[in-house]
Amino acid sequence: MHRWWLLGALLLWGSLCALVQAQSYPTPQLMTAKPAAISLAQPAYLVWSAIPGLQTEITRISESNASTFGTGHTDYTHLYSTTQLWNSDGTRLALSTIDIGRSYFLDGTTYAWQFTRTGVPLSVRWSATDPDLMYGTGRGSRTFVSYKPSTGAVTTIHDFSADGFTSLVIGNDDGTPSNDGRYWPLIGMTSGGNSTIIIWDNVGNTEAGRTTLSGGIDYAAMSQDGNFVVVQGNPVAIYNRSMVFQRNIATGSIGHSERCVDSAGHQVYVGMGSNWDIVGARMDTGATQTYLPGSGQPAGFYVAYNTHFSCRNTARPGYVYISVYSDAADTRNFMMRDNFALKLDGSGLVERWTQYFGCCESLGWASINPPQVPRTSRATVSPTGDRMIFSTDWGVATSGITIYDYLVRMPLSGAPTCTATTLSMAGVTNQGGAAYLIPAVAAPAYGTPADVSVGATTSLLRLFEGSTELGPAHSLVSAIQAPGNGRFVHWSSDGQATQEIYWSASDNTNPTTNGRTYSYTTGCTPGVALTAPLLTRISR
User: Which of 95, 110, 346, 448 could join 104 in a cystine, given CB atoms 3.0 to 4.6 angstroms apart?
Assistant: First the structure.
């Protein structure tokens, strides 16, 4: 049976839209030894410093100051690695701290403090569509609520008081919603210690599914496409969003994990295995894969214990961002000091973003204040994966210090330029559902080889609808047809002699009549910088 593969976007005719853009990501590399420790003075607040030996730069984005963040707290940091800190249009970010109920709101591009809110709902997460809306659960109540940061207004969406829960949270703080913001995993605890998992449909304003499990669980979270629910327990279980059990997955995971999309577009559970390796499992089949060998395996890559994972790079699928604080019991770990991105294709390629600069390479946590959690990186990333935020004590092991958040990016100055080429709509035809086809043209029309087999990620083509980047790339044509929503594939069915593009508009309208401009680049991203909200994230 002929298997179609999704679409990219391209045609060499059209106007050039030349825009300056910083290189977005560090150069991928294979590690064969433990990198040396980097010496760097603690950055001042909102002052950028180049990180020696790396391609990135860093600044501190929080401070203890009576006129901005306030004073008297042990940490001015974000909550967790699986928390998306940026709002839907990238104009604002929120640091909701370990110190419950306190959230700092910053400009999403300059990172300057804007305002502080106290008494915010529990487990707050940004809306996927409204830049001034968050969702959480009520304080002192058993309610699912919306929250408006600009005013502090709280609105009850649904009251679960009749269920008799002793508490209600979004997934136990690790509960990520679906990327489109429709499905939210709620956990209600009973007086008997059981956990009721409720999947709330925020569009239908109703429950999509519910089940009660005996005892407590670590978390419940949606897959990025909203089709699966991961319940982290022993074992890790996969449900559909109606909370019908599908399968247990055997990754040997011993703790921290994330819900990611691999390089082939599969929804995957990614975590640390029993060999200190980075492992993944497909949610639809349970098939497992080792992405990075660990210290319990033959010589190769070593990663450290207490690894945190982030796949909040929802507009850059195929990567997981990993932050590590040192494991004193096994200093062989190659990446024991690094926060890095790992490509989810089994190649072992990593992007070195920063070192942790933390205190405790050979020191326990027992008598340290602030305690362990605020001092760990818990690194999370922007939707486009071009910025990383993490926490560190900057090497000070003594008690009584204050912990801050830091942001890492590629430098904005002296960067290469790239151009976006407008695609012609001449000859474009509908291929069923939301899928449209740009006719085949002789290679190398788009400046990169095309994908030639299902699951391939050969093409470097990136497709844009106005200033919005479309994706995921490398999609199957059936997925471009439905659900569509920007999916595409750059494809060759004749061994690269010719290339064609199957794609869908962000809202599944007809791209030949919706009045929008479609363009492509090869590898790089057009724009002033990904740190500016030029490229907006689409929900999919």
Answer: 95
* Averaged pLDDT of the chain: 83
Phi, psi of 20 (to 5 degrees): -80, 135
Q: Which of helix, strand or coil describes residue 479?
A: helix
> 446 near 12, Cβ under 8 Å?
yes
Task: Supply the pLDDT for residue 414.
Answer: 46
The number of helix segments (H) and strand segments (E) in the chain equals 2, 38
Contact between 468 and 426 under an 8 Å Cβ cutoff? The reply is no
Domain boundaries for CATH 2.130.10.10 within the chain:
123-249
Q: What is the pLDDT of residue 32?
A: 77
pLDDT, position 238: 97
Q: CB-side exposure of 191: number of CA atoms within 13 Å? A: 2
Rounded to a whole number of angstroms, the distance between the first and last alpha carbons of the chain is 28
Q: What is the mean pLDDT of residues 87-96?
A: 94
Rounded to an integer, the average pLDDT of 146-165 is: 96
Residue (of 110, 77, 106, 57) closest to 378 by Cα position:
77
**Cβ density class 120-138: b for 16+ within 10 Å, e for less:** bbbbbbbbbeebbbbbbbb
CA torsion, ordered 259, 145, 90, 380, to nearest 10 deg? -40
Asked if residue 328 has pLDDT above 80, the reply is: no
Rounded to whole angstroms, how far apart are CA atoms 391 and 318? Answer: 24
Where does residue 168 rank: exposed (0-12), middle (13-18), buried (19+ CB within 10 A)? buried
Range in 18-27, 76-85, 130-139, 372-381 with the lowest mean pLDDT: 18-27
Report whether 481 contacts 487 (CB < 8 A): no
> What is the predicted pLDDT for the residue at 395?
84
| Overall size of the chain counted in residues | 540
**pLDDT value, residue 297:** 57
Q: Can you read off the two tokens belonging to residue 253?
A: 């995971």
Comparing C-alpha atoms, which of 297, 284, 292 is closest to residue 345?
A: 292
Strand ranges in 325-460 using DSSP code E only, listed in sequence order: 338-343, 350-355, 380-381, 387-392, 403-409, 417-422, 429-430, 436-442
Beta-bridge partners for 430:
436
| CA nearest to 470, candidates 531, 439, 511, 442 | 511
- What per-residue confidence (pLDDT) applies to 456? 64
Give the Cα-Cα-Cα angle 384, 470, 431 (nearest 5 degrees).
155
Is the pTM here over 0.85, yes or no? no
At residue 67, φ and ψ (nearest 5 deg) are: -90, -10
CB atoms under 10 Å from CB of 167, counted, come to 12
403-409 and 75-76 strand pairing: parallel
CA distances from 137 to 21, 106, 154, 170, 267 (A): 40, 22, 10, 7, 27
Q: CATH number of 123-249: 1.10.287.110, 2.130.10.10, 3.30.710.10, 3.40.50.10580? A: 2.130.10.10
**Residue 223 in tokens:** 């897959």
**Residue range 4-54, pLDDT digits in tens:** 222 222 222 232 232 233 348 999 988 878 888 899 999 999 989 999 999
